Amino acid sequence: MARVQLTASGVAEGTTSEIKTGNHTFYIDEPERLGGNDKGPNPLQTLLGALIGCESIMANMVAKEINFDLQRISFSVKGELDPRGYMGDPNVRTYFEKVEISAEVKTSEPEERIQKLQELTDSRCPVFNTLKAAGVEIVTNWKKA
Q1: What's the pLDDT score for residue 60?
Q2: Residues in the chain with pLDDT < 70?
Q3: Taking the complete model, does pTM exceed 0.85, yes or no?
Q4: What SS3 class is residue 58?
Q5: Which residues contact 103 (CB under 8 A, 6 or more apart)?
Q6: What's the rounded Cα separation, in Å, for the pair 99 and 117?
Q7: For residue 66, which of 119, 142, 117, 126 has the smallest C-alpha distance?
Q8: 109 contacts: CB under 8 Å, gap ≥ 6
Q9: Phi, psi of 117 (to 5 degrees)
Q10: Minimal CA–CA distance to 75: which of 119, 26, 140?
């Protein structure tokens, strides 16, 4: 299979970035209290949202492959970091230390099949694995809705 290239471009005015990728445009910004225009989520919130989107897409792909009755999946993701890193302290990393993923799976499947779906999803999710490769502690909790 051929390699895939994904692209994005952006223009920034102050803290507001207008990002274009394919046929889509979105904004990344900071809240007003941090000097932004609050036109979109901040970069780290965007990353957490990308994790939810990626996990959801992968879960649906895997469910079809393993004949899993996936009716709906709801995610809640929380990231934890020390802001001293991005504020300039060279002794503190600038990215998440820990990310917690909770998923509620609406299904007729038993818990052990839900855990299998989670393991396969995580093993194939590019955003999950990017965080994992960066040494982020990832805690997952998938359960039946």
Answers
A1: 98
A2: none
A3: yes
A4: helix
A5: 55, 59, 73, 74, 75, 76, 118, 140, 141, 142, 143
A6: 19
A7: 117
A8: 68, 69, 117, 144
A9: -60, -45
A10: 140
| Residue showing tokens 């509620």 | 104
Q: Contact 100/139 with Cβ under 8 angstroms?
A: yes
Say if strands 98-107 and 137-144 run parallel, antiparallel, or are unpaired.
parallel
Cα distance from N-terminal residue to C-terminal residue, the chain = 37
Provide the token pair at 10: 């952006």
- Give yes or no for a contact between 48 and 28, defined as CB atoms under 8 angstroms apart: no
* Tokens of residue 74, six digits: 């709801």
**Both tokens of residue 71?**
């009716």
**To which residue do tokens 């396969």 refer?**
120
